[in-house]
Amino acid sequence: MAERWRPETHTFHLPEGEMTITLKDVVILTGMPISGDAVIGPQTKPEVGWGPLIRDRLGFDMPTTTPIQGRGHPPLNAGQVSVSWLVSHIQQEVVINDETPEEQVERYARIYLIGLVGGFLFPDKSNRWIQGIWLELLTGDWDAIGQKSWGSAMLAGVYRELCTCSKVGAKQAGAAMFILQLWAWEHLPMFAPLDPRPYRRNDDELNFLQNLPYGVK
Q: What range(s) does the Aminotransferase-like plant mobile domain occupy (predicted)?
């Protein structure tokens, strides 16, 4: 699909004509909002630095000098957070029960959001680092986070990466490329995986899927 992408028109050039991924596709396949405030973050690191920001809003310190085992950079390096370190921190240290203070639950939720957004919805090409922009964007007001047009930003990221990886010599792509995968399965059935098993679901599964995005189904 990347070889069929034309940066001049942001469309795929196919034998039958031109096609592209639209905002409608994004909201149907993923359920992400396509209206609301633009997803815009800071262009420079905060005056106090990333370390104090993480400590103040997430409640823990990230090493800035000790390298990750087997790698040459610490978990917090040049405004980027290690995905593997963040995931391991959540798995090892996060315990939530009925006695957990609400403030702590909120902090855990923000950590999860940072990992989800920075590592899955807007990943870099290595899928190893989360950009510092998400630290500020996802540690602010809860209502403001929910009112942003995340679907539009995801589609813009996919367009940008398709324009980049369609060039000669490109070997990787970042962004939420699972959107392209789902879109291709839906609109170009010859790419969709074939399941030899009969497609049957019981009532519980159907009820569970009823209100989920089409991409999950």
A: 1-194
The per-residue pLDDT for 35 is 93
CA–CA distance, 64 with 149 (Å, rounded to integer): 33
Q: In whole angstroms, how far apart are CA 128 and each of 36, 112, 198?
A: 29, 16, 38
CA 48 from centroid of its chain's CA atoms: 26
Q: What is the distance between the alpha carbons of residues 31 and 212, in angstroms, rounded to a whole number? A: 8
CA gap 182, 3 in Å, rounded? 18
d(CA 124, CA 138): 17
* pLDDT confidence tier of residue 68, bands split at 50, 70 and 90: low
114 pLDDT higher than 90: no
Residue type, 70: G
Going from the C-alpha of 77 to that of each of 6, 119, 125, 129, 136, the distances in angstroms are 35, 16, 17, 9, 16
Burial bucket for residue 118 (CB in 10 Å: 0-12, 13-18, 19+)? buried
Q: Which residue has the tokens 């990466």?
A: 161
Q: Give per-residue pLDDT as tens, 7-28.
A: 999 999 999 899 999 999 999 9
Here the tokens at position 56 are 């103040």
